[in-house]
Amino acid sequence: MKLSGHQIGLLKGYMHDLVEQAKQDEDAHKAFGFAQGTYRPDEALSDLLAILDDRIESEGVEVGLREGFLHHMWTLCEEAQVHVRDRVWLESNVKSEGSSKAATRKLAYKALIEFIETGDSARSTDGDLHRRRTQDGDA
How far is it, in rounded angstroms, from Cα 16 to Cα 105? Predict the structure, then answer.
């Protein structure tokens, strides 16, 4: 299932909300003198799936998220996990983005969107190739 531009736009909005929430959490922790623990890219993906579950339950059909969207996103996040982890590690070390919760979320969601946008075209191309081979009797 290829994601529509509208669905990707909704995802980006939810991702932005999660990054902003992390910034607020970090500010609150600093104000009270608490140290932030490490936050991993897989936690960022889990947080995204949690907000998607909540938003689908509360808004779902009204905003254009059809049935099966959460399962599809769970599958995409599973497939993207290595890409996201490697990308976050690379960018946080090369660009010195830091390892804050907000920075990790921002980098993880950027990598996930990249994976979705490039992966959808690669998956559809692979599917077209497989269909042509099957039709031609090559499979």
Answer: 9
Pair 37, 12: CB distance under 8 Å: no
Question: How many other CB atoms are there within 10 angstroms of residue 106's CB atom?
Answer: 21
CA distances to 67, 85, 130 from 71, in Å:
9, 21, 24
Nearest-angstrom CA–CA distance, 75 and 93: 28
Distance between CA atoms of 43 and 101, rounded to whole angstroms?
9
**Structure confidence by residue, pLDDT tens digits, 9-55:** 999 999 999 999 999 998 888 888 887 788 999 999 999 999 999 98
